[in-house]
Design goal:
Number of helices: 4
Distance between the termini: 54 Å
Number of domains: 2
Largest sheet: 3 strands, antiparallel
Order of helices and strands: EEEHHHH
Strand order of the largest sheet: 1-2-3
Radius of gyration: 19 Å
Oligomer: single chain
Shape: elongated
Structural class: alpha+beta
Amino acid sequence: MAREGVCIECHKEKLLVRGTCLDCWPERRRQNVAYEQGTQAAHDDTMNNPYDQETDYNVFYSWEFGYSDERERMERQRLQEKH
């Protein structure tokens, strides 16, 4: 699982776990968990996360997976053209 290489965080030659050295890994993992949970407490933990309110996170989450108003409008239009 671990291998030698250059860390994507600190750019030093070290033993890596998923591209990150063991010195940087705990911070990177904490940020990833905070992002995945999307809770206010997790956002407070993660200083550099711009999505610090639950509503902002939900908007981003919807945009990230392509569930936008524009997509819904196009889908409705496509269905109307079929009938």
